[in-house]
Amino acid sequence: MRTLLFCFVLVFVNINIYCQDYVKLKQKKIEKKIEKWLNEKNRKFTKSSTDSSLSYNIKDSISQEFGFNFYFDKYNRCIIEEQTFNCDSCLQKFLQFVLKRKFMNWKQIDGGYKVGFPYSLYLQVFNTNNVYKLKFTYKGWKDKVDEN
Asked: pTM score > 0.70 for this model?
C-alpha cells in the first residue's frame, strides 16, 4: 500500500510542477531555474526585483523580445506569473501549447480560462500597445489574491 501511495504522490508532484512552471514557487527557486535556463540557452537578459516582484526581459538571437514577470504573496510564494511577447504569433503559439495540456483541462470562461483543483489557476490573455501577455493567477490559497 505504501508503494502505491508513494507512486501516486510522485506522479502527482511531477505533473503539478510541470504544468504550473513557476506559480507557487519561492522567489529564489524561480531565479535559479530561470537563470539556469537562460545561461544554458546563452540568452541576453536584464533582471529587476523587489520584495514582491521579479522581472526578466530577454532578447533572443532573432531580435524577438519576451519577458517574465512574477508577483509574490506575503509568504514569498509566486501567485502571478506573466509572460510577455512582442508578437501576436509568439503569444498564440505559447497559448496553444498551454491549452493543449490535456491533464490540465482548461475551461474557457468570460475573459480567459480557468482550471480547478489541484492547480487552481486563472489564465488571461492581453494585448496592450502591441505587447502581448499571458497572465497566470493562482487562486488556491485562502489569502486573497490581488487581481491587478
From this structure: yes
